[in-house]
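no rush on this but wanted to send it before i forget. theres a chain ive been looking at and ive put its sequence and its fold in token form underneath. please have a look and point out which stretches look like helix strand or loop to you. thanks a lot i owe you, the record is right below:
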Amino acid sequence: MPPTYRNYIDGKWIPSTSCHVIRDLNPADFRDCLGEFPESGPDEISQAVRAAHRAFASWRRVPAPARGEFVARWGELIARDEEALARLITMENGKTLQESKSEVKEAFDFARFMSAQARLIEGSTFPSQHERRLLMTLRQPVGVTALITPWNFPILIPCWKLFPALICGNTVILKPAEECPLAAHRLVELAAEAGLAPGVVNLIHGSGEGTGRTLVKHPGVALVSFTGSTETGRRIAQECALSLKRHVLELGGKNAQIVLADADLTEAVEGAVVGAYKTTGQRCTATSRIIVEQTVAGSFSERFLERTKQIRVGNGLDANVDMGPLVSESRRKRVHAYVEAGRREGAHLLLGGYFYESEPLAQGAFYPPTVFDSVKPGMAIAREEIFGPVICLMEAEDLEAALLDLNNNPYGLSASVYTSNMHTALEAVERIEAGLVYINSPTTGSELHMPFGGVKATGDGHREAGRYGLNIFSEWKSAYINYGRRVSRVELQTPA
């Protein structure tokens, strides 16, 4: 029998009262069940919210540098268990072990970075129009925050939200994706080992439609931070608007790489392969469209196909594998449905687009690297987020046409341009409608001290990572301090 896991509420591992469970399957082998997790209901969510409210009264009064020291201890434990955490991520998510190690390493690096920011939570002072009056601003915590995180980075993205939330003095209810709950369970175990005070971080398991929706609606939650699909993000925004609840949304992408005639095609091909197939295309910054200038389109396509055929698909624990499975069978079916839609719309399938039928790949959610050409901008595969190893090759007459195709999309997260002309590169940086722009590198590869997020349907304008998470998880307070004299009524008669 697979192990049974519990929620973490008020410093205790609490058995669920729900009779419904979610089975955590290894996507490389569906016969391997890693554990069973509860489908938490309203009672358990309310219990977690009450615990977080009780803890907030004391946690917010802990000096910010001391809160930072806790995050630093937590990070050290993450680094200590890097190998075990990486293997767990690979078994639960499917990505290669090297990718999982990189994820854990970045989580540790972010803990170090954010723990230092605890001593830099600054406000400002301003000159007053009155004598002997001090004007200043300071940051205040928001309160109980609900963090709803995705399955593609089951350690890193929770840390992106947890660390700044805690640094700012908030308490937290973490609801991880139902596909990868075990990584979050282990992460919270390490928080408890680091000396976590009861109620400061609570862990609630369950589905997005059930547990997640109930958590978002709870009146005791002050802020919802969500990373996931644009469709779900819209529903969360609508629900939060009803109670004027703060919400932060980091949503989908349909990222494009432009390859111009003066580019180094060898570098452009390698960048496209990395951007498209790393993490099996299951990252919001993954390359999904490649827009190539017509004069080099044939040469690029030939090289790209040849390089793509070299990708070795298999269990991510195998050091010889380049790409693991998709996260689940439902995800594989969804990706394949987009491939079938591309065929119906008239795109030309050059590579992939099938289910494996032989062992051992037939036992998991494996899907081959897939490439279309003759893709038109209006096709579903060119406009909608597939979130899998599927590439659309497109042609453009010149930079102007390429930028038009790139920007003519509902999303705006990440984009890349390969060119040897720096004037062209800087013009592209200025004109591309995206939150992240790369020159001569893939659409993936953000660094933790830079703001992360996008425009249009990619989110609601907030930025994660770097110091920018402090803006999400804090509120500004303006203070007016009179000293040394009484202020006349006339002086106080201001418009505000």
